[in-house]
Input
Amino acid sequence: MTEKRVTFVSKIGVVAAAAGSAVGLGNIWRFPSQTADGGGAIFILVYIGCILFFGIPLMVSEFMVGRSSRANTAGAYHLLAPGTQWKWVGRLGVLTGFIIMGFYMVVCGWTLVYIFQSVSGSLSGTTDLSANFIALQNNPMRQIVWMILFTLLTAFFILSGVKKGIELSAKIMMPILFLLLVVLAIRAITLDGAGAGLNFLFKPDWSQVKSTLFLDAMGQAFFSLSLGMGCMITYGSYFNDNTPLVKTAVQVSLLDTLVAILAGVVIFPAAFALTANPATIVDELVAGGPGLLFITIPELFNQMPGSMIWSTFFFCLLALAALTSTISLMEVVTVYIHEEYHISRRKSTLLVTTGVIILGIFASFSSSFFNFLDVASAKFMLPIGGFFISLFVGWYLDKKIVYAQLTNERSLKYSIGFLKTYIFLLRYVVPIAMLAIFIYGLVA
Ligand code: PFF
Output
């Protein structure tokens, strides 16, 4: 089984594939709405702290578990910890991936609707963009059709082979998406009244601290970096022996955070500048929840010449970024079923696709079910998975394996202090801090 696994050949392919999984709707759709809800700058500060202290060490750990076992997320625990209960961490990850797809695919479907509306010109002709989004939300059948389409598209890529699809689309799409966001950010911050949006984003207002701030930021960090469910374990299993794990984790996290903040720099200045009532804009943004991206960005396009072209281009890129993430989600679940139950790849894909569509149908009909899937996975299941992965690498995994993986069998030179700090973080800092955040978030 292991010999047949493909590995990424080019260096850029490795980073691109992992970054392709990380950069997605989590950055451009979920991050802004969480930031609005979390009080702006203060949320971003805590979020960056979570990326540094939890995100990067855990991403390295997931890569490590994947590469040292060369197996899927559940199989990795069978191989590295045979006969123990650690396998449940892998299984939890597979379940989490399935649950995330249940609502993520619905949002992916929205991006397709917006591509369609952009091309047909109906988006640039709409003056009430909130009403346009609400109409979509109130039309489950329409959401279901597009959600199914996106799920099938993902399944098609899964069947056509991991490497080709992901590497290529991530390598081409990511730089273009980045550039487009830069252009949009420039347009947004040069609008009259944009300064208030930048203040909201970058000037911490300590009176805004909510009791769930840490839990929300931690959940968003896990979600955005694709951590806690073994997605990066699966990717790590495809890495070759020379891939530097720490460097790759730092690069992916940096890129992911940059894209998220850039999305914030587009959306908030635009939202503040284009609102009719600046006094209530924050409440509106919070109330708008998942609609933020789908309302504010088209409003911004309507301020630009050639809005139809811009919005077509933007939503196409967004759909592509989402696709490289859904591929990684579906890959985790499919490979698990394929390798653990010895069901063909084709049949496993069919099974997963059907399950996701069923979940997506429920999420399209009920926004509270949609929110339940979102909260359960991002705020609970991913951090719980991350907590156990940190314990696994910090306490259980043979330190010889850990050091060999970190240094690529001693070909990379890290100081012993660095290696010890890494283990210390995983043994004590990450699990204790996560536990404290959980308890505080739940009881406060
Ligand atoms: N990181 C993706 C995003 O930000 O859109 C979502 C995601 C993909 C979460 C894969 C978890 C995962 F395993």
About this structure: The chain has a mean pLDDT of 91.
